[in-house]
Amino acid sequence: MSSDIMPRWVVLKFGGTSVSSRERWDTIASVVRERLGEGLRPLVVCSAFGGVTNALEGLLEGAMAGGFQQELDEIRAMHISLGEALEVDAQAVLAEDLSALGRLATGVYMVGEASPRIRARMLSLGEIMSTRLGAAFLSKVGLMAAWADARDALTSQGGLGLDAHRHYLSATCDFAPDQALSERLGRLDAEVIVTQGFIARDPAGETVLLGRGGSDTSASYLAAKLGAARCEIWTDVPGLYTANPRLVPEARLIRALDYREAQEIASTGAKVIHPRSVAPALRHKIPLHVRSTPRPEVEGTVITEGGQDQGARVKAISSKTGVTLVSMETAGMWQQVGFLADAFAQFKKHGLSIDLVSTSEMNVTVSLDPAANALEQETLTALVADLSGLCQARIIGPCASVSLVGRNVRSVLPRL
Ligand code: ADP
Ligand code: ASP
Ligand code: MG
Question: Which of 4, 127, 157, 299 stands the most exposed, by the fewest C-beta atoms within 10 Å?
């Protein structure tokens, strides 16, 4: 099919709970049919089944600790039973992946440790398996569906000084428009393509992950590369709320948001969209829609450029847990040149990304976000040792952060 007559892509991302039952897959099939009816070409991006990524981590820990059979059996049973609900022969469809998983676990068990590289290969199987069953199901219900390996579409960015954790487990990818990808996917003999969230390949061809919750980011990268009409994030709540609706039942659904506001809400802890998923959509002006698989009739939240009102107000409140603070105390920095530069250079040296910063005359405190940092005890100890030449450094944690997000919040502070 030549590109000028090819319908525009729409990327539909379904999270863990949105792919974990027959009922949800019936909804996915009907959303795909609706989008085909709109004249769009759907690319479905799926997470692993709910709980599977955690179960794979448990399998890995078990293998390192000396036993993993029970964990492996549970993961297999979960997929077989969902396969039965979907009327797909999971034993046959997943035979190779399940045996690869067993081999990897055995390898980890033999050596008693798992490198980030092996961890990435094991965790990637969650998304590989969910999409194989999903594609088989969509074919069974009469859609022409093809399975595609997301690793052939997304290449991670290397970069000097990237530690192994970041390289294999929290990678970022290029998302420039990719006509060749669009043509390659367009040539597949299918009306819907099913692919994985969360996984990519590094320039050497090794499997890498985009960080926990990273399937949203995969969807946004793919939408940007394909110049999609929009990117729909289908999840278990009807959109972005003024607070986490599971913690705050009175929270209200936000119908329209600007990319930058969505970015702030995401990066201050609202798990509903991954913080890295906003930038690719913003750069290529791809609308992001947040929708609910259990309640597909609700319009959800539309994230685009602008948003209507420019007035000062708080849009949302979000929180984050597992935050580590580094407090740096010194009398010597007052009116000195370069204290912050020297202190921050130590964070860079240890590969730590700083989130929030607060300063006073005698103290600078920064926060380290667990989603952006491996935060191993030995790294923190080495950081404190290196900082001690400059100041009295102290680690405080685990802490939580609570953020108010909105426009011109500064001007409404007195009222708040
Ligand atoms: P998925 O598996 O579909 O990716 P996630 O669990 O990652 O879903 O994200 C959805 C969850 O995000 C919701 O169940 C909700 O508890 C949580 N959440 C946190 N803050 C917000 C918010 N402001 N609006 C909506 N959901 C939120
Ligand atoms: N399955 C991965 C996770 O649980 C990625 C995702 O769901 O977005 O983190
Ligand atoms: Mg998520």
Answer: 4
How much is the pTM?
A: 0.93
Ligand located closest to 131 CA: 2
| Contact predicate 129/97, CB 8 Å | yes
Residues with CB in 5 Å of ion ligand 3:
15, 213
The dihedrals phi and psi of 199, each to the nearest 5 degrees, come to -120, 150
d(CA 239, CA 300): 5
- The three-state secondary structure class of 404 is strand
Average pLDDT for runs of 10 along the chain of length 416: 72 98 98 98 98 97 94 97 98 97 96 95 98 98 98 87 85 97 96 98 96 97 98 97 95 95 93 96 98 97 81 87 93 81 93 91 91 83 93 93 86 80
Closest ligand 1 atom, residue 216 Cα:
4
CA separation for the pair 303, 290 (Å, rounded): 8
> What's the gap in Å between 274 CA and the centre of ligand 3?
6
